[in-house]
Amino acid sequence: MLWEPPSPRVRELIRLGAERAVRAPEGWLEQIDEATLFGSHRRDIADDPVLAAATRRANRSNLLFWAAANVQAPGERVPANVSEPQVLIARDLVRRGLDHSVLDSYRSGQMAALRLWTDICFSLAADRDELRELLDISSRSISAFVEDTIAATAVQIAREREELTRGSNAERLETVTLLLDGAPIAAARAEQRLGYRLGGEHTAAVVWSDAPETALGALDRAAELVAAATGDPRPLTVQAGVATRWVWAHGRPDPERLRPGVAAIAGVRVAVGSTGDGVDGFRRGHLDALTVQRMLARLDSPHQLATHDEVELVALLTADPEAADRFVHRVLGALANADRELVEAVRTFIACQCNASQAADRLYVHRNTLLRRLARADDLLPRPLADAVPEVSAALAVLRWRGGV
């Protein structure tokens, strides 16, 4: 691409605009993220919390890289961004079996960034000729930067794919993918390659982190905790991405034994799938663990650990987050924003099958105290609790996993 430097005046305007872009408000970044992740053809990225978080980091890296370059050298061609966020997303895309075609999402982000940049240009240039030159040079600069970065990332993807084809983890990941896809691979052959017995009862889990500062060793420690909670001395752990581990272990883990250990590992999250027998249980458990992982990400839940047994209903209810919000507000009304003591009284009362004496014992309060709290809750609910126990129970479950009381 022919690259002619802009006039001195437009160079100064680009520098001023780039200084604003370096300090871009969060709303800008959210618009670029939405453009990058939106669309059914990008569902593989948007539904995976690790890939989605990596994409957001890459978007921020790209915006800051281009803006900083134009603060230093306004209007000059910006080299491709090959910084750490780009390398990490390339690595994760390869380990998920995706290719460079998903990088088209960068072009959608480019269009969103260009719209925001245009607003800056109109606020800076009063002269029509200066505005035309400013828009022309900066739009070509953004386009060239994005294309160069896509090309550089595609090269990195090719390198990562070549590296992945070597080594024991690559063989395990390939074998696991065949099993999950239902490919006709003999169980004995799969067991030999995995070093893991496919017979008997399995529980699957996904261990991941969407926090860039999390030490990768922490993911391995969390995977070991999952296995320890089942009592399996020889679990199967596969590195599915830079910040993701897929785990299978024989047996059924005790969530209450697992929870404090996971809580002690900052930045790591664990989604535990269902427990099942044989190859079908191996596959079904993993798919259920992915369902739990996506639910936690969808709700932006603060919980570090969730099991499929705990959240199966909530995952179904929140498949459409906006519909789930409407359901919660319609069923709970003002109770949704009540203090923890009141909400916990209702939740415990329902858990005790509406037995006030048992609920009071569990809460360590007098029965009359519990009854007063339930009466206050009835005043806040749109319908009396006695007429809507199943709906209130489900809405409170959504509220809990969404991060409410």
From TrEMBL:
Protein name: DNA-binding transcriptional regulator, PucR family
The keyword DNA-binding appears for this protein: yes
InterPro entries: CdaR-like_regulators, CdaR_GGDEF, Homeodomain-like_sf, PucR_C-HTH_dom, PucR_C-HTH_sf
UniProt keyword terms in alphabetical order: DNA-binding
Domain CdaR GGDEF-like: 186-295
Gene Ontology molecular functions: DNA binding
Alphabetized PANTHER family for the sequence: CARBOHYDRATE DIACID REGULATOR (PTHR33744), DNA-BINDING TRANSCRIPTIONAL ACTIVATOR ADER (PTHR33744:SF1)
Family (UniProt): Belongs to the CdaR family.
Occurrences of domain PucR C-terminal helix-turn-helix (ranges): 342-389
Species per Swiss-Prot/TrEMBL record: Streptacidiphilus jiangxiensis
Pfam family, one: HTH_30
UniProt lineage: Bacteria, Bacillati, Actinomycetota, Actinomycetes, Kitasatosporales
